[in-house]
Amino acid sequence: MVNFFLYIIMTGMFLAAGAQETTPAATPPSVADAARAARERRESMTPKRIMTDDDIAGKRGAGDLASMGASEQQVRAEMGKNYPPSFFTMANVTRQITQLQSVAATGDANFLRLSKEAALAGYESVEFPGKKGWEENISVAGSHMVDEAGKGATRLQAIIDANQNALAGRDPSALARMREMWIDALLPYAMWQHRTRDLEEDGKARAKTYATGNPIGIAEYHHEAARRNEIAVAGVLSSLQIPEDQLKRVWGHYACDAAQWPRDPLYPELPNQLWANYMETVSGAGYRLDMQGCDAGHYTAVAIPPVIDGSQGRAFCMDESGVVRVAADGNPATCIEKLKKPPSENLPSP
Fold first, then answer.
1. Which CATH number fits domain 236-339: 3.40.1350, 3.30.540, 3.30.460, 3.30.1360?
2. Which of 131, 135, 192, 221 would you label with 208, given CA atoms 20 to 30 Å apart?
3. Pick from 258, 285, 282, 255: nearest CA to 272
4. What CA–CA distance (Å, rounded) separates 159 from 112?
5. Rg for the chain, CA atoms, rounded
6. Cβ contacts of residue 79 below 8 Å, gap of 6+?
7. pLDDT tens digits, 38-83
8. Are 334 and 327 in contact (CB under 8 A)?
């Protein structure tokens, strides 16, 4: 969900109207006239700031990749493709301003957090070479992007205000001029957007490479994976109490397997879907869920890690009390012993 939200923010600025370009209605101006007009428009707005490697980082570590950012010509060409004349409707242009304002409102700190989550999902604990410099680079790029989002929204609103007749009348020549101004106004933001996106891809590639190419990186990745798996498994156990209590109220006893759980009347041949979801989550985390001693008054659920030594996750267990216990040594027997004691220790954060 976090990756989807971030991707919407990051790519929404290049939304296209979905319609094909219309046939140009007027003879285009000469190259010299077009260049002069574009220059005059740019000079009348807030001057754009073109990024350089010096802006991103004064020095790069030996492990860093070479400079990545796209050139102004590349970014402008991409924007040209994504802003056909059909894009320029009042609904589309106002929606884009709202999107820019949302990016600006995210703030530097939150934007950095979302960028790192998008880039390093699953590899947060992997300390690949140059990670500190990469974090500094993406922080600088993201800060500029957030700043330019706010400025861009202001510039675009001014363009809309000055081109109400063009939007209402749909005059091809007027819309073509508005399109050029629109791209010019967004270019500073788009440059930093490209830089941020490139840095995200760079960080993701470097983390994955380090997590599979040397023992330290592999260990860091496995530690992070074990933490995520523990969270998923603990979540299953903590929610298992709800359907078990419902079954106890309806049938008078707890249930230990899918055959004892009520089935969906629309799919009577299939096990209960909730049970299937639980089992899929647990097995996907590399654990095994063992249900024991289900009767009128008791049951025990034990989540057993892949290796019973604590190296690939702790063991979790729960009974009818609804209190989830944890065994740091990964041994389910240790966890079950804790269930026999008074409920004095709740589940710690994995």
1. 3.30.540
2. 192
3. 258
4. 30
5. 28
6. 14, 183, 186, 187, 190
7. 445 444 444 333 333 333 333 333 333 334 467 888 999 999 998 9
8. yes
Which CA distances in Å does 301 have to 25, 109, 187, 228, 298? Answer: 72, 41, 57, 20, 10
Q: How far is CA 178 from CA 9, 10, 79, 111, 174, in A?
A: 24, 24, 14, 30, 6
* pTM higher than 0.70: no
Render pLDDT for 164-194 as a digit per residue (tens, 0 to 9).
Answer: 998 988 888 999 999 999 999 999 999 999 9
In 107-203, DSSP assigns E strands to none
Residues of the chain with CATH 3.30.540: 236-339
Closest of 230, 238, 229 to residue 319, by C-alpha: 238
| C-alpha–C-alpha distance, residues 24 and 19, integer Å | 15
CA distance 197 to 7: 10
CA–centroid distance for 237 within its chain: 26
Specify the amino acid at residue 175. Answer: L
Place of tokens 């009042």: 90
